[in-house]
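// run 5 | inverse folding | seed 20
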């Protein structure tokens, strides 16, 4: 476990095999999560949908992903990534199959809501890869896992329309293409369970001492942790508002008010669970060797807010931006140029992880988010008088910094507290979705130029926050069940 290299062709190396197993699992989870999007015209025609109904379906697809990432993070830390990834993929395959054969819009909506859970699959592999790779190469490994897996959404966009129209054909071609993704996910979940292992041979899988929330190290961290949960409930309320008569009118005002009340109850319940998990610490403190700084988690969450959050938001509006900005551009060309933003994941995210391994965690995060900020400020200046090639280059450069920043974020996550890596990844990942909904909500009130400007300015604030990151150094400690202190190198 001392090697700092990542030789992707060395399939005799167990950690390389684990990395490939995991990024493919993540890839499939994203294919399933976004398999409906490129088939929009076919699905809308089958159910005679309105534009508002389709928008509601897109909203439902991400609604549960925010709480799901928190829940999945807890389950991963408790039961291990092997079991949780297998169950998630098998369940996703079942729900996906049911979606393919839905007979009403209401069935489609319910199943899309449930499929939002598959968007939390990303969290599982963060813990798995963190267990297998040493600190010197974990950033690059996490970048490969995240970047190649995240490409699943783009792969679905490019292949499923062809599969639906050319391979299967007919009015039910979209159903069979979606069914195909569900079947592949189902059987890969079984394969993953058979082939994957939670840790290298002889290593210990450390589990949280208590379930229900993150263990923190001080009363100040406790209240910061509680505060970090508030934005997630606000965004869930925004999603409900979008589905209410004030938005797409998929639900009634009465249902919306019930959901708002439910969020209040859930927040109170979550607070009680967090307090229960940390009661002993609040009353008696904890050993110095077991402490960690929760501010690290908070900063990474906000960094993911502006990186992955902006990526999801921009990818959804970029084709229309090109179409409306450059006169005479075809729909196909606009779609291709817009998808180029996501294509950068293949190289940019691993690059961000490698930068973090090579040049330092805080420095890399700072420079990459600063580059992201400049990139969006440049995009805010694009107009129809620009040569198209300049606009494309500006978008690609901005995309590189966005996704490299994502890689730098998750190069740090596994180095904070090993036994809670899943929960830390879950909270961080959830803030990415919070960012996406926040930016897209802002976009409904402003033009594209102002939209890019808002992202760029918000990223400047995160650059300042990044200075609070403490460079991982030396060792973090975990305690074995027999009381033995185990040191984990994070330098």
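// decoded
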């Amino acid at each position: 476990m001392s090697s700092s290299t990542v030789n992707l062709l060395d399939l005799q190396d167990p950690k390389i095999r684990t990395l490939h197993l995991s990024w493919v699992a993540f890839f499939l989870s994203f294919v399933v999560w976004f398999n409906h999007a490129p088939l929009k015209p076919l699905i809308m025609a089958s159910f005679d949908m309105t534009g508002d109904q389709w928008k509601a379906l897109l909203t439902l697809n991400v609604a549960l992903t925010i709480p799901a990432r928190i829940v999945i993070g807890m389950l991963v830390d408790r039961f291990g990534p092997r079991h949780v990834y297998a169950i998630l993929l098998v369940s996703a395959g079942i729900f996906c199959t049911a979606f393919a054969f839905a007979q009403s819009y209401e069935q489609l909506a319910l199943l899309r809501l449930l499929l939002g859970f598959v968007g939390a699959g990303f969290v599982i592999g963060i813990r798995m890869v963190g267990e297998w790779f040493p600190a010197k190469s974990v950033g690059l490994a996490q970048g490969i896992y995240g970047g190649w897996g995240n490409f699943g959404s783009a792969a679905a966009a490019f292949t499923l329309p062809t599969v639906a129209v050319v391979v299967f054909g007919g009015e039910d071609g979209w159903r069979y293409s979606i069914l195909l993704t569900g079947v592949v996910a189902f059987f890969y979940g079984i394969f993953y369970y058979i082939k994957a292992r939670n840790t290298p041979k002889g290593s210990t899988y450390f589990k949280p001492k208590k379930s229900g929330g993150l263990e923190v190290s001080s009363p100040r961290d406790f209240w910061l942790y509680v505060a970090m949960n508030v934005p997630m409930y606000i965004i869930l309320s925004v999603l409900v508002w979008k589905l209410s008569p004030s938005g797409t009118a998929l639900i009634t005002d009465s249902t919306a008010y019930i959901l708002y009340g439910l969020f209040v109850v859930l927040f109170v319940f979550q607070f009680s669970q967090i307090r229960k998990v940390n009661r002993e610490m609040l009353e008696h403190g904890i050993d110095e060797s077991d402490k960690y700084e929760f501010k690290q988690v908070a900063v990474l969450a906000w960094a993911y807010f502006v990186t992955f959050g902006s990526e999801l938001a921009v990818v959804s509006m970029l084709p229309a931006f090109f179409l409306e900005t450059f006169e005479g551009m075809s729909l196909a060309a606009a779609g291709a140029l817009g998808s180029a933003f996501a294509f950068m994941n293949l190289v940019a995210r691993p690059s961000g992880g490698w930068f973090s391994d090579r040049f330092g965690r805080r420095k890399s995060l700072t420079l990459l988010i600063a580059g992201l900020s400049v990139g969006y400020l440049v995009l805010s200046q694009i107009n129809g008088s620009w040569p198209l090639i300049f606009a494309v280059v500006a978008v690609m450069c901005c995309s590189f910094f966005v996704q490299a920043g994502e890689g730098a974020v998750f190069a740090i996550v596994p180095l904070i507290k090993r036994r809670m890596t899943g929960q830390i990844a879950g909270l961080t990942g959830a803030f990415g979705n919070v960012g996406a909904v926040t930016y897209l909500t802002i976009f409904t009130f402003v033009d594209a130029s102002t939209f890019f400007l808002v992202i760029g300015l918000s990223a400047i604030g995160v650059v300042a926050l990044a200075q609070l990151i403490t460079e991982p150094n030396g060792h973090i400690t975990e305690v074995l069940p027999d009381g033995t202190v185990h040191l984990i190198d994070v330098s």
